[in-house]
Design goal:
carbohydrate binding; about 30% strand; Immunoglobulin-like; Glyco_hydro_31_TIM; nine-stranded parallel sheet; alpha+beta; disordered N terminus; nine-stranded antiparallel sheet; 51 strands; binds alpha-D-glucopyranose
Length: about 800
């Protein structure tokens, strides 16, 4: 029986009959008569791990995706033996295991089948490499839908597609191209509104087939490693993502400035040009917090060196930029130039830190500096060494963030674009070939960089970016989508990629605004900025070989549009920061595709354009030239058009006006949206006042939160934060806002300015904790002390 045609062989092997089972430390082992073991571990009520061994022998339990190498949580689930099967029960699900073939089925507590093996686990022995080609196939009921899997530039719903995960440098990739830079083998399935997730934690090249080969089968496989996957029960899709993120890790809070606007190009040099760019931002009053130095800052592309002709005194320059509010971020690549005079090269050679080919020679490949060797980031000692290399850049020169590029790893002028399979890696003490280490190489580089930056930037918070990533990379780094193109189609791709990344546990992402390759029209750039300010990472970047891509290169109108939207992002910083805090704290995805926002409405299941920014703002980019607006779907409930304040009913499509200076934007009724004053960079001004935009809602109480802290540093981990939770109750002639404040952080501002939108009555009386307060008729707002428990507005 051939299930994966790609593998062409017909040598599938299957588990035999179960002959015994045992239970120890949360692990339930089922042994078959042909020495297959299925090990089931219940980590939580809704999270179960399935692991298969074929020679009565598991590999060492180690995963880069999971902090400390393996999941530590478990509980001793109850196992029952029945005539033909075993069953394992948690508080939310039941798992059955067939005695004659190890077939598993997972049910919810209403006895709905959530996930059922088709052939289940099977494998082929790999004569060439040893070990197995491990495979799993699941029954796919008609109507089941699939989401997730990281950076795939295709429709959010993956049904009917075959996907491959093999981190690849795909310059100017196209829509539907696969694979790209990242490998996130986690998907979400949903059938009859019930969602579940599967994380196939295998770093080899992995494949997923969503009913492409057979319309009622979904399968996943890898040409090596173990069949080792985690099942997450929803039924709520957001809970699936949250559980996956819990397992693979959450990021720490970035410094607030990292959520500002960033400007990048390949490359800004010499120093004079860098200064011209930053000054222009201040002159035009387009807020900006970070400026990037691409590879030309280095001396002949040697990592950890400076081109002294372009940058004679980097420390002074970085300090001067900092005075003007700019944080300097530099790129770093894994390729180390083969140069006997170069200290990084010499150290690595001396310590034997470079990757080697199977028979011993060093792994040699061409990248920017020419012929290079490559540190083996899967060796903990190498990571430690690499992290220390950042001392000068960060500690002495004052750079604030590091951008990891080419870490798939990318090799030029070879068809595979990467290392050959035989390259050896330490893999944290379990030596292996590149087949196994390839997909996590980039993440281990970013991890080593993160450790270095964190160490030297302390007591500030680090900021790291990576191009390649495997599951779990979100613990260390933000990420961008690589070398996209300045086309309208790529604007669509950017929108889909960021939503997909968010639902794949990695929210802190953005695209190269305007497109990396080729040159955008002013209109395309404007539309891209309008979307980009709603992506967690917001940076303009371009390859620079086709003309400039700073906002002012497109003329007055685009300057004004850019300013308007970047200003809006800066006003929304407390909202964005709160979203990030919810992500860092609770694993809640920052962007929510509509299906994740409201899976109960089948109209959301195929939507790709509209998404929810945080919890309460609906965004829908304009993706075509010459548009005056577009049709879009408004999710169920009531919403306010942000621009016109018109109150609209959701659950249907409608036309929304959005001329070139606008983007369709809606606020959920009942939301309280916090805003800061416009600043040219984070920390430019003292925040004198927090503004709250209150969007009236009749009926049920709605809650909104505002998280704040010192915007950098680690005092927040010791209770120095401020979390305001507002609950809004709207009645026909009154509005009540109750506030609970937690944490010890004292915010700078003393007052809160409240603006009410959509009130069906004229405010007659305002009471704050029982005391009357006047209405500022001029500004149509009311100003109240920040410490209050109850604000009561009546007609
Ligand atoms: C790669 C990166 C790009 C960078 C360039 C030069 O193409 O993806 O962002 O500008 O290399 O370093």
């Amino acid at each position: 029986m051939i299930i994966n045609t790609e593998l062409k062989q017909n040598h599938n092997l299957f588990p035999g009959k179960v002959i015994s089972f045992s239970q120890e430390e949360g692990k339930v082992n089922f042994l078959t008569n042909n020495e297959v073991i299925l090990q089931v571990t219940v980590l939580k009520d809704s999270v179960v791990r399935f692991r298969y061994a074929t020679d009565n022998n598991f590999e060492k339990d180690f995963s880069y995706a999971i902090e400390n190498g393996s999941p530590k949580e478990y509980f001793d689930a109850k196992v029952e033996e029945h005539e033909n099967q075993y069953s394992i029960h948690t508080n939310t699900i039941k798992i059955t295991i067939q005695k004659d073939d190890l077939g598993t089925t997972i049910y919810d507590h209403h006895d709905n089948v959530i996930c059922k093996d088709d052939l289940g686990f099977h494998w082929e022995q790999s004569y060439e490499h040893g070990g197995n080609i491990v495979k799993m196939s699941k029954h796919a009921p008609l109507g089941e839908l699939y989401y997730g899997l990281g950076d795939k530039p295709m429709h959010l719903n993956l049904k009917g597609k075959r996907i491959e995960n093999w981190a690849t440098d795909q310059y100017a990739f196209s829509k539907d191209q696969d694979p790209l830079y990242k490998s996130i083998p986690f998907y979400i399935g949903m059938y009859e509104q019930r969602a579940y997730g599967i994380f196939f934690d295998n770093t080899f090249r992995t494949f997923f087939d969503f009913c492409k080969e057979r319309r009622d089968v979904t399968s996943f496989w890898a040409p090596g490693g173990e069949m080792n996957y985690y099942f997450f029960h929803g039924p709520n899709m957001q809970d699936v993502v949250t559980q996956y993120t819990d397992l693979t890790g959450k990021p720490e809070l970035p410094p607030l400035w990292a959520l500002g606007y960033h400007q990048c190009k390949w490359s800004y040099y010499p120093e004079k040009e860098v200064k011209e760019i930053t000054s222009k931002f201040r002159e035009l009053k387009i807020p900006c917090d970070a400026i990037y130095l691409d590879i030309d800052y280095m001396d002949g592309f040697r990592c950890f060196t400076w081109n002294k002709e372009y940058f004679p005194d980097p420390k002074r320059m970085v300090a001067e930029l900092a005075e003007d509010g700019f944080k300097t971020i530099v790129i770093i690549d894994p390729g180390i130039k083969i140069d006997k005079e170069y200290w990084v090269y010499k150290e690595a050679i001396e310590k034997d830190y470079f990757c080697r080919r199977a028979d011993g020679p060093l792994m040699r490949g061409k990248v920017w500096p020419g012929e290079c060797y490559f540190p083996d980031f899967t060796n903990p000692e190498v990571r430690e060494w690499w992290s220390d290399l950042f001392k000068e850049i960060i500690d002495e020169i004052g750079v604030k963030g590091v951008w990891n590029d080419m870490n798939e790893p990318a090799i030029m002028e070879v068809p595979s674009k990467t290392f050959p399979d035989d390259v050896r890696h330490d893999y944290d003490g379990q030596p292996c070939s590149h087949r196994k280490a390839h997909n996590i190489y980039g993440t281990q580089m970013a991890r080593a960089t993160y450790n270095g930056v964190r160490k030297f930037v302390y007591p500030h918070r680090p900021f790291i970016i990576t191009r390649s990533a495997y599951s779990g990379a979100q613990r260390f780094t933000s990420s961008w989508m690589g070398d996209n193109v300045a086309t309208w189609e790529h604007l669509w791709v950017a929108n889909v990629q960021m939503q997909r990344m968010s639902m794949s546990g990695m929210s802190f992402t953005g695209s190269d605004i305007g497109g990396f390759a080729e040159h955008p029209s002013g209109e395309l750039y404007a539309r891209w900025i309008q979307l980009g300010v709603f992506h967690p990472f917001c940076r303009t970047h371009s390859s620079g070989d086709h003309g400039d891509q700073e906002p002012w290169t497109f003329g007055e109108e685009v300057i004004n549009i850019t300013r308007k939207f970047v200003e809006l992002r800066y006003q929304l910083l407390p909202y964005l920061y709160t979203m990030f805090w919810e992500y860092a704290e609770e694993g809640i995805p920052m962007l929510k595709p509509l299906v994740l926002f409201d899976q109960s409405d089948s109209q959301t299941h195929y939507k790709t354009d509209e998404f929810i920014f945080g919890n309460q703002i609906l965004v829908c980019p304009i993706q075509e030239p010459n548009s005056k607006g577009r049709r879009m779907f408004i999710p169920k409930g009531h919403w306010y058009n942000y621009w016109t304040r018109e109150f609209v009913k959701g659950g249907m499509e409608r036309w929304v006006d959005a001329d070139i200076d606008s983007i369709p934007l809606f606020i959920k009724e009942g939301a309280i949206i916090p805003k800061y004053p416009i600043q040219q960079y984070v920390g430019e001004k003292r925040i004198e006042e927090l503004r709250l935009e209150v969007y009236y809602k009749l009926g049920n109480t709605e809650t909104s939160r505002v998280y704040e802290d010192a915007q950098d540093g680690y005092d927040y981990t010791k209770g120095e934060y401020s979390l305001r939770s507002f609950s809004l109750t709207g009645k026909e002639t009154e509005v009540i806002i109750e506030q609970i404040v937690e944490g010890n952080y004292i915010t700078e501002y003393e007052t809160i300015r409240v603006e009410c939108i959509g009130l069906p009555f004229t405010i007659g009386k305002i009471e704050v904790d029982g005391v009357m307060v006047p209405f500022d008729t001029e500004n149509n707002t009311l100003v109240i002390p920040k410490v209050f428990a109850k604000l009561h507005l009546t007609s």
